[in-house]
Amino acid sequence: MENEGRFYLDTSIWLDFFEKRDEPDFPKGTWAKNLIRKIVNDNNEIIFSDANMLELINNGYSQFEIEEFLSNLKELQCCIIPKIIIIS
């Protein structure tokens, strides 16, 4: 199946996902995880840019932590995420 589309996620969505930022009645971390899963399961791609990287670094993450986390996304529970495109 050919890719349906590409999605650029705002850094706040990545932060919700990385930090599992769920709140009572506002499960942002769960929504972010479900969004990423849906994008990939629908055969789409996620774009991760240098802007995302810089904003995450400005929020206290090292480049190594971010790259390690992105590589670990390939085993997101019941779905595989091989389609994260890192652009410069």
Describe this structure as you would to a colleague.
By secondary structure, this protein is of the alpha/beta class. It has one domain (6-87). It is built from four helices and five strands; from the N terminus they run E-H-E-E-H-E-H-H-E. It has helices at 11-19, 28-41, 50-58, 63-72, and strands spanning 6-8, 22-23, 26-27, 45-49, 84-87. The strands form two sheets. The chain has a three-stranded parallel β-sheet with strand order 1-4-5. Helix 1 packs across helix 2 (28-41). The longest helix has 14 residues, at 28-41. The protein is globular and about 30 Å long. The chain starts with 5 loop residues before the first strand and ends with a strand. 12% of the residues are buried. Residues 76-83 have low confidence and may be disordered.
Topology:
Layout: E1 6-8, H1 11-19, E2 22-23, E3 26-27, H2 28-41, E4 45-49, H3 50-58, H4 63-72, E5 84-87
Parallel strand pairs: 1-4, 4-5
Antiparallel strand pairs: 2-3
Helix pairs in contact: 1-2
Please write the string of helix (H) and strand (E) elements. EHEEHEHHE
How would you characterize the largest beta sheet? 3 strands, parallel
Number of helices: 4
Give the proportion of residues in helices. Answer: 40-55%
Distance between the termini: 27 Å
Low-confidence stretches: 76-83
Rg measurement, Å: 13 Å
How are strands sequenced across the largest beta sheet?
Answer: 1-4-5
Strand content: 15-25%
On the 0-100 scale, what is the average pLDDT? Answer: 79
Tertiary shape: globular
Integer count of domains: 1
Number of DSSP strands? 5
Q: What's the quaternary structure here?
A: single chain
Structural class, from secondary structure content?
alpha/beta
